[in-house]
Amino acid sequence: MALNVMAGPGDDAVRGPTLERLLSVMGAGALELCVAPGGLAAVVEGVTVLDPLEPGRSRGQLLLAVGVDPQSAAALDVVAEAAREGAAAVVFGQGRSGRPTDALRTAAEAAGTALLFRTAWLGWTELVGALRAGLVLAGVPADPAASAVPLGDLNGLADAVAVLVGGAVTIEDLESRVLAYSSTKEDVDELRRLTILGRRVPEWRVAAMREAGFFRALWGSGDVIHRPAHGENPERLVVAVRAGGEVLGSIWVAAAGSDLPPHASDTLRSAARVAAGHLLHHRSHRTDARLTEDAARALLDGRGSAAVLTERTGIPAHGHCAVLAVRPGAARAARAARASREDESSKGESGKGDLGAGETAGRLCALLAVCCGAYDVTPVVLPVDRGALILLGGLHKDPRRAEEQVFQVGTSLVRQVADTFGPDARIGLGTVVDTLTGLPASRRSADLALRALLSPGEQRAVASASEVAETIALNEMLDTLTGAAQAAGPGPGTALDTPVARLVAYDAGHGGGTMVETLRAYLDHFGHVPDTARALGVHANSLRHRISRLTEVSGLDLRSPDARLLAQLQLRLLERGADRKQ
Questions:
Q1: Which of 220, 258, 442, 485 could tie 323 with a disulfide, CB 3.0–4.6 Å?
Q2: Could you tell me the domains of the chain?
Q3: Helix (H) / strand (E) containing 113
Q4: pTM for the full model?
Q5: What confidence tens digit (pLDDT) does each residue in 19-33 have?
């Protein structure tokens, strides 16, 4: 499936840009070079996705090995075939480990084929779009105007364009998020002020433009669109930034203090061509925060590189660090979301957006990052389902002092989170480890501690795994005893092929029977019939009949200490599962 993206005008000497030129335009944020045995002078005529049903289409192409695990034997075959067909290079995904095998490196070097890897934070679809733009930009001779602003310096670009067009500039992505804006001494209009403060165009404004068909016109047009002044909103010009058929974003110019000059449209048209390389660089690199988050998440999942995280954050690869698992109070967050929805419906266009799960997660992560800044640690905050993870680096060299730091940070954070999101906030403290590569184990202990703190009857708001070890053990028993049953679909706390599971099923099929209740009382009273009968409010003879029927239905051997112990554990875990369900 060739994309047929060729070099632009002015590049008559070759059929396309070199691999070196393409990589310089794309930047390391999109592709990682593994090996290039023949150098980077190979000409890239286009990009094609590997299709075993259509061989022989890879000559001069950047071959995307989608769906091929770089750790597999099939990857070696792909490299060998690419070399025979004359492919410019082969691009693999991250695979399970995120690292190429020695066998794959050796195969690429022997075949003389350049080997590249797609970065973890850029999906295949995004990569194809970026390559389409990159091949065009790489094939066009460098514009002298582009060298005046370092590649990726969008704020510098916005200031430069503002000087040339004589207005206030904002550069936005496809979602109307502000990527950069120019500084100006002139008074700005209210819409620009709201856009810059919120780092995106207000939702009500985006909705109005979408309904009016403005974005269809903008993305479909290759020229500058003029929006005349209206009321307090000054005259504006806007142009889409595109390359290789890919729309990368837009540049907006608003009159500031005076009308825009007659040449503003021509200048903005030229600026859009220069901006294409900058926006492509931004897209492939994303933001520093996103790269840091992706590097930390990969490391916590046990598939990332400590060196990458060290480079992104400055956290030493060898030094004490730990993970905290945070769960905000659900009640107040839910009330805040409902209040926000009601406020939105009453305010209409001028109101704020809905405080949904995404905004709640954003508020939580922002709060945690700010609060961690008060301590002598280096934090990385990651949003996860219903909460957040905090990677704490730069802890004290002494292990005991490092543990005290973790406890101090966790205790302070849980108060802050409780004040904002509700009193039932909980934080599980992970074990302190001495290298970044030990963080998956710290994350595991933090998750276990958090789950224990969320168990019924637990009053503590912050604790380490060692402090809630008994609850963790019970939870693991619950997982062991109920895992098979939950996979099959029964209710919480039940287990397959055990006497207690049979009693639960029997009670469910007899309109809320009393078998489970009877067994629980019998075991709680150590098999003493009179005490059990009084607790249940039945006659002793009726209880004996129930016990007989109970053993008949379940197959439980009440004379066996092991059978009684297992039954009592399952009944206790059954209660915990029911409480958790509530």
A1: 442
A2: 19-139 (3.40.1390.20), 146-285 (3.30.450.40), 316-471 (3.30.70.270), 490-581 (1.10.10.2840)
A3: none
A4: 0.47
A5: 888 887 776 667 888
